[in-house]
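Input for the complex:
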Amino acid sequence: MTVLRLFTVSIICHAEKVKLLIEAIIVTNVKKSISYTEMIENLKRDELLAHLGSWELNCTTDEIYWTDGVYRIFGKDLSSFNPEYMSVLNCVYPGDRNFVEDTVKKSLNEKSVFPYELKYRIIHGITGQIRWVFQKYVIIRDSYGIPLEVKGIIQDVTDNENILNEYSKFFQAVRFANNPILITDGSGRISYINQNFENIYKYDLNNLYGRKALLLSADKSVYLDNGYSEQEYRALMKEISVALNSGTLGNWEGELITRTKEGRIIFTLALIHTLRDMDKNLQSCVVSIIDITRERQQEEHVRIDIYKTIASLAEHRDNETGTHMKRIGEFCYYISKKLKTPKWYSDDIRLFAPLHDIGKVGISDEILKAPRSLTAKEFNTMKTHTSIGYDILKDRTKLEMAAEIAGNHHEKYDGTGYPAGISAESIPLSARICAIADVYDSLRSKRCYKEALSEEETINIITEGSGKHFDPQLVDLLIENRGGFDSIFKNMRD
Ligand SMILES: [Fe+2]
Ligand SMILES: [Fe+2]
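Predicted:
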């Protein structure tokens, strides 16, 4: 009897919900003049769709009733499945049996009026598969707390459980992935970041939840300082936007510059994977990030070393000293800073101005090292070091400025220079800066063929050349900052 009573209890339902559901169906169906048989059929169909079974137990008579759904869920039929507690318990997966028994016992001994819920595994009677079921029941008690009736539903939730398991595995994989991962909704607002993202970017999800992922991107100025042109930056942003907004493209992979909460710049290789609905509307983006900052820095060091090596090769072909080359780089950097050019510009001119005479590698020693004044013909040959330099450096990525300096550093502001005889603003700014820096340093330096001039004599000669040889704006800048130029010259003396 106890067994039956326990079983009774384990088989109850969602009574109120089911009642309401039935009432709602009846009301609706009365309006539609559907027969009672049809209503029952509909209910059965709904039950089938929901993998649902319901049951009731009268605790006084120990009479149990359960629907076809219960048989279906357990994979049993009338002949093999008597509506009693042991029938159910025998179907429970052995590892979950104690849990089911304990929960049922406990619920009977309590006085709670709230529904009980439990989820456990069963072994399906037909397929032998392990299935997950969810059971919810209420115990209706008398005023002494003695159970009178138990009503419940049971549902096969294997599919849900499998999805949850998959989700949980996926979540674990993302959470503890070795690279930072960020997930946004369809409008680009952050909905999730993983552990590694938190570690590297110093944000936690509370800081970022609901905010635009764009806030993690470095400012445009950072892109420009790191070698992107205005045009390249715009093209990059457009490319991403097109990929995300076009239902046919979908994913995007490329380099992005990002910043952490503390403002540290991180160079990344980002893979943006988009998830879309049936109409191809963007629902979510999963952004996986590889930190390539160290590689970028190493590349930059290698790049700079290569340029310095080339510059030192050029020095050896020439009478100029290495410190002359370095000082020119520093003068150009100094002028560029005073002109408030972008950081990449001043960094590049510092690096490339020392390459201005690289074209001298193409001039024979006879002319280059002649211990006498050059003939007119020889001087014309000498002049070609500008075009030779330009030809060596042109069309090479990231060497555009080096090429324009090499090609134009002998042009004069009034158009009387070479090789092209261009004037004023037609001469690239970098070459105008390099010209004044080169002459300033040469005048102040001692050469085998001349003595060094004083700072004052140098300034006078350059002032004299304002608007003729030199850009007058740069001459003014030199005069205003002559102390700064003087310090660079003295600190970097041969
Ligand atoms: Fe030159
Ligand atoms: Fe020079």
